[in-house]
Design a protein that fits this description.
Elements lengths: L4 H14 L4 H17 L6 H10 L12 H12 L3 H9 L18 H12 L5 H10 L10 H12 L4 H18 L3 H4 L5 E5 L5 E5 L4
Helix pairs in contact: 1-3, 2-3, 2-7, 3-5, 4-5, 4-6, 7-9
Amino acid sequence: MLPTKEEAEKLLAEAEKCNPGPWGNHSRVAAHCAEKIARECDGLDADKAYILGLLHDIGRKFGVRHLGHVSDGYLYMLSLGYDEVAKICLTHSFNGGTVDGYIGKFDTTAEELKVIQDALKTTVMDEYDKLIQLCDSIAGSESVLDIEERMADVKERYGAYPQEKWDTNLKLKAYFEEKMGKSIYIVVDKEHFRIWRDKFGFDEVGIWQKE
C-alpha cells in the first residue's frame, strides 16, 4: 500500500518540522530522479517511484540517527499501513541485502538491529528497491550529483566506503542506463535541475535556467 503523492509530500513536510536538515531536500532530489528514470523504463510506475524516493529517508523524522533511521522509517511506515514504503526504508541503505558494509554508526538497540536483520532475510528486492538505491547515491540536497563524486564525498566524511557497495552502485547505474538506452544524467537533467530557496524562505523545486 502507498500514500498518494500529496500525502507523501505532507508526510515529508511534517517530518522536516520534527528534525530539520538537508535530508528533506535530498529526498526531493531522489524523488525527482526516481520519477524521471521510471518514466523511461517499461514496467515501472513514475508516481510510485516518486513516492518511494520522497519517503525513503522518512525515519529521519525521529532524530539524528545513522542505522537507526532505517528501523525508525521501516516501523513508522508499517504503522501507517504503507508496506511498500516500509520496504524501501529498509532496503535503500543495503544494496548488498545485508547490514554488512553499512556506512555510518550502528546506533540501534539490539531489538532494532534484529528488526532490520530479520526483515532483510525475508525481503526480495525488486526494480523499485534498485531504483531508489541508485537515486539515493546521486541525490544531493540541492541538485543531482555525479555518482562517483558523491561516493567519494561519503568516503571522505566517514573514512571508508566498502568496495563492494561502490561497485554495486556503479552496476545499478549501468543497469538502468541499459534499460533506458541513455545516460541517467540526461534523463534526470543533472545540469539544470535545482532546489533553491526563494526570497520568502520557501524551498522551490524546478529547472534552473542560465541568464
